[in-house]
Specification:
By secondary structure, the protein is α/β, with parallel strands linked by helices. It has helices at 13-22, 34-41, 52-62, 94-103, 123-134, 159-165, 175-185, 198-229, 233-240, 263-270, 276-300, 326-336, 354-357, 367-373, 384-387, and strands at residues 3-7, 26-30, 65-68, 76-79, 112-115, 146-149, 168-172, 193-197, 307-311, 341-345, 362-364, 376-379, 398-401. The strands form two sheets. Strands 3-2-1-4-5-6-7-8 form an eight-stranded mixed beta sheet, with helices on both faces. A five-stranded parallel beta sheet has the order 11-10-9-12-13, sandwiched between helices. It binds ligand SAJ. Residues 118, 152-156, 208-209, 212, 216, 249-250, 252, 255-257, 259-260, 315-316 line the site of ligand SAJ.
Length: 407
């Protein structure tokens, strides 16, 4: 298992491909976007993640990582493609289907196909069904194809460390597939490798993210209650957390990212009657951005022509990723409601994301200008650079701190 083909060179695929290349494996990375392929071919990266640029550069220069628009024959195929949802929160596994079709012509007996994308229960089994139709001869005789799910669990901001140190769950479509995949991961993972079946592995991953979503929803609900009762939610949670068995997470402007705001819906779609709490948690977290907008509106009503600084656009601190970001929803809603002039700051981006570019009453600017020119300051992301803001300089302003960093 020395030749690996990685399909999808995003937040999981690119770090995985370059890590494997750095361990001496021959890696063929594939992405359907020619711009991404060109960027990586020139030794650069299209995403911000600590130390990824250095790793990719050395992987490409060593010749161990080549990138292309098409797959190539390999021993192992890793699918790391997006699994978003469609309208009504129904899972969209069309990228998994497209990736399966793309690798099908290159598969040989005894190859190992691994699905790393977070997927609805039954997706790994579905890959097996698709491949059985596309390449029926691979299921004849004893030299069968191996197929397994090994869900990615890395935290953006710590991907390269967690790729190696996290425990990994592996669930094959049969015991031989599980065993092959476990052998493969043991070559570069220092965490424990735990074997199960494909459906259990899929649900375990969805459960991890739903656990976090439900816990954040509890914190966000407390923030609604505290706003209603005029109590400082941050202080209250800090006090409650002094109990030895209480560990409440932090409220925020809402839950973003491509995982926690998405994956719980996959459980809801599979078991709509049973997943009541999981659905409710999603609804609570999704309602938070509008609650923040309402609070800003109340303060803005005091001014004739309010200038509002919106600090941060990414979905969480110290990264550039704006997917499903509640900060973006808040800025969009403020602009649509024409609440005031908006000064938007995001130190991790050079320009506004396309979804905000066309909006009126909105200007992309730097932190100093935004703080100086605004009447209201809305802290949307707890970036390190915002934590360093001199509190005295905010005395004359109205401050809405959705992350509780300026308590
Ligand atoms: N958030 C809060 N309050 C908190 C913690 C987080 O509002 O106390 C918000 C964040 O600001 C962000 C969102 O939740 O908007 C999600 O951030 P996160 O740091 O909790 O998680 P992700 O989405 O960056 O990564 C998660 C991780 N899953 C878990 O921690 C269970 C990661 O390990 C997974 O690999 C990743 O999802 C994934 O790809 O599935």
């Amino acid at each position: 298992m020395n030749k690996v083909c990685v399909i999808g060179l995003g937040y999981v695929g690119l770090p995985t491909a370059s890590l494997l290349a750095s361990k001496g494996l021959t890696v063929h990375g594939v992405d359907s976007n020619p711009q991404i392929v060109n960027t990586i071919q020139s030794g650069k990266v299209h995403i911000v993640e600590p130390e990824l640029d250095i790793l990719v550069k050395s992987a490409v220069n060593s010749g161990n990582l080549v990138v292309d628009l098409e797959p190539a024959p390999s021993d192992v195929f890793i699918l790391a493609v997006p699994t978003p949802f469609q309208a009504s929160h129904i899972p969209d596994i069309s990228y998994v289907e497209a990736a399966t079709h793309a690798i099908a012509p290159y598969l040989q007996p005894q190859n190992l196909v691994i699905l790393e994308s977070t997927s609805p229960v039954g997706t790994t089994e579905q890959i097996y069904q698709w491949l059985k139709q596309l390449r029926p001869e691979l299921w004849e005789g004893e030299a069968l194809l191996h197929i397994a799910h090994c869900p990615e669990r890395v935290l953006p901001g710590q991907i390269l460390k967690e790729l190696v140190t996290n425990d990994r769950i592996i669930g094959g479509i049969d015991p031989a597939s599980t065993q092959q995949a476990a052998m493969f991961y043991s070559r570069f993972v220092s965490g424990e490798i735990i074997c199960t079946d494909a459906n259990t592995a899929e649900l375990a991953k969805l459960t991890e993210n739903s656990f976090r979503d439900v816990n954040i929803a509890f914190a966000n609900e407390l923030s609604f209650i505290c706003d209603h009762l005029n109590i400082n939610v941050w202080e209250m949670i800090k006090l409650a957390n002094r109990h030895p068995r209480v560990d409440i997470l932090q409220p925020g402007p809402g839950v973003g990212g491509h995982c926690i705001a998405v994956d719980p819906w996959f459980i809801v779609a599979s078991a709509p009657k049973q997943a009541r709490l999981i659905r409710m948690a999603r609804e609570v977290n999704d309602s938070k951005p509008s609650h923040v907008v309402q609070r800003i509106q109340e303060k803005a009503d005091r001014f004739k022509a309010p200038v509002i600084a919106c600090l941060g656009l990414s979905y969480k601190a110290n990264i550039d990723d704006v997917r499903e970001s509640p900060a973006i929803s808040i800025v969009q809603e403020l602009s649509q409601n024409q609440i005031g002039e908006l000064l938007v700051v995001e130190p991790h981006l050079d320009t506004l994301p396309p979804s905000l570019e066309v909006l009126p009453n909105l200007q992309f600017t730097n932190l100093v200008t935004a703080l100086e020119k605004s009447d209201i300051i809305v802290l949307l992301v707890d970036h390190r650079i915002f934590k360093g803001v001199d509190q005295d300089s905010l005395k004359e302003k109205i401050v809405i701190d959705t992350r509780g960093i300026w308590r």
